Amino acid sequence: MTDRRVVARPAGLRPAWLVAGVLSVLVAMLLGLAFGSARLPPASVAVEIFNQLPWVRVDSGLSDREVAILIKLRLPRVVLGLLVGAMLALAGAAYQGAFRNPLADPHLLGVAAGAGLGVTAVIVLGAGAATELPVGVPMAAFAGAVIAVGLTWLLGAAGSRDRSPAALILAGVAVSAFLSAAQTYLLQRHVESLQQVYSWLLGRLSTAGWHDVLVILPYVVVTGVIVLAQRRELDVLTVGDAEAASLGLHPQRSRYLLIIAASLGTAAAVSVSGLIGFVGIIVPHTIRLLTGPSYRSLLPLSVLFGAAFLTLTDLLARTVAGDAEIPIGVVTAFLGAPFFVLVMRTMKSMPT
Amino acid sequence: MTAAISVRGLTVRLDGNLIVDGVDLDVAEGEWVTVIGPNGAGKSTALRAIGGLLPHDGEIHWHGTPIARLHRRERAKAIATVMQSPVVPPAMGVYDYVLLGRTPYIPPLGRESASDLAVVDEVLAALDLEPFAGRRLDTLSGGERQRVFLARALTQGAGILLLDEPTSALDIGHQQEVLELVDRLRAERGLTVLATMHDLSTAGEYADRMILLAGGRVVASGTPAEVLTEANLAEHYRVRVRVIDGEHGPLVVAVRGNPNATV
């Protein structure tokens, strides 16, 4: 069918955008590795990263101390930022599609608060031993996340017959408040853990090590595979459940799968990085504006640009105020809150 | 001859309320059957159940095969439904919307093939929609959108077209345009059409046979002339009507006054 007269091209991931996404990840990585309290020349950083590959030997010109900063401190932090950013952006896009709600986001749905409560419960009640295991904290976060999203969904459906986007978000706010209150109560009863929990709550990218990367990697892979595999289903779901069913899909099954996968990804991100908001709103909506609404391009690009975005935000958080590091969640909230208003203003033209 | 669709004892309850109560109907291959009835008669519910979209009791056969036995994707290749007011996805292009009709043919995790795109191109050309292919669906007028909805259903390649109030949002000019289009496609592609409609005269002009539903039951069926009688309509629509012989079937006009008085 090479002589097909092109009427229009189907939506999908354009190679140019894929290249742009990969480049943005590489640039963000390089900047994140080069800048900070100790400044390293970006070119040397790039050479040193090559040097670390097992079959390459090149001299980057960095001192041993600089190499140690690069590989032991900065690289795990940058890699963790990439993974967490990719997960939060992908989860946001997946929730938006599954709930057909442009405001859906891991934080606004209460998912992050649920995950936070799960982690707090493990740290506080727990069994110090459980926190050392690679499954303890993420699994507690996952359980909290799934319970939270379930509560939000039920409350949102019960509170509004027309299933308006606002009802779901209001339910998410209520669930967030309730779970945060439960978390505060737990902390008050266990003041001895306050320090440990708070350092985690404010975002732990600052203390990231390779251990954290290995803890969340499996969850990131599972979530990524499940959500990306549903990209075409998400496009069909935009026409509504009845139409999607008449086209041969199982809308409710796809929805459950997506929500559980997105909650798993959120939980993994939260369990290593604490509460970082708005990434799931900022990144997917910016991509929609640039490349259109199709989830076939939105989901893979959310992974790439989400990773780049959080890495750059982290760079901002640790450089903008000199030596004093700002919690990364504060930076994303500064960027995200105005963006949220922007999305709300355009919602009339994008009824979901 | 086996009917394209054969329905026996179709019963649907929604939230515990009996909406469709033991409906029997047959639609022969290539036939156009229109279901009429007052608001709340269960027309749309019956149509959605026949499309396999609602849990129901009773039997629905498609060319002799129980549709309950068909896989969802197989059913989507056999029966295409155009809903009463389909959701218009924000910012989606016409081409992508029409391509959604190929969903049951695209393997899970796969992508659309050249033949899928060829079907879309052919349908867009047949419905004079090529100039709109690059437009956003939400920028089209009501009549243009209805043609796009129809195009989406046609790309499913199904022999049976279920149309729920296909013209309710259109002015009379565009109503006729859409129905003429359906009739032409029916002839060209050997489609079987089962529709619900409110406008009785228009319904009668296009249907081979009609079924009058009231309270979830079939209260009259037959040719338009047999169903669209002053007595039938007075009884079930509670309105005084006058039925006039038209060129293509009875023309129904509502007249003020007591429905039980003769006109």
Automatic annotation (TrEMBL), chain A:
An example Gene Ontology molecular-function term: transmembrane transporter activity
Main location: membrane
InterPro entries hit by this protein: ABC_BtuC-like, ABC_transptr_permease_BtuC
Transmembrane segments: 12-35, 78-95, 107-129, 135-155, 167-188, 208-229, 256-283, 295-316, 328-347
Membrane in keyword set: yes
Record keywords, A-Z: Cell membrane, Membrane, Transmembrane, Transmembrane helix, Transport
Family of the protein in this entry: Belongs to the binding-protein-dependent transport system permease family. FecCD subfamily.
Name of the protein described by the UniProt record: Iron complex transport system permease protein
Organism: Actinoplanes lutulentus
Organism lineage: Bacteria, Bacillati, Actinomycetota, Actinomycetes, Micromonosporales
TrEMBL record, chain B:
Listed PROSITE patterns: ABC_TRANSPORTER_1, ABC_TRANSPORTER_2
Protein name, entry field: Iron complex transport system ATP-binding protein
Gene3D superfamilies: P-loop containing nucleotide triphosphate hydrolases
Domain ABC transporter positions: 5-240
UniProt cross-references to PANTHER family, sorted A to Z: HEMIN IMPORT ATP-BINDING PROTEIN HMUV (PTHR42794:SF1)
SUPFAM superfamilies per the UniProt record, alphabetical: P-loop containing nucleoside triphosphate hydrolases
Keywords: ATP-binding, Nucleotide-binding, Translocase, Transport
SMART domains documented for this protein: AAA
Molecular function (Gene Ontology), one example: ATP binding
Coiled coil regions in record: none
Pfam families, A to Z: ABC_tran
Species of origin: Actinoplanes lutulentus
InterPro entries found in the cross-reference section: AAA+_ATPase (IPR003593), ABC_transporter-like_ATP-bd (IPR003439), ABC_transporter-like_CS (IPR017871), P-loop_NTPase (IPR027417)
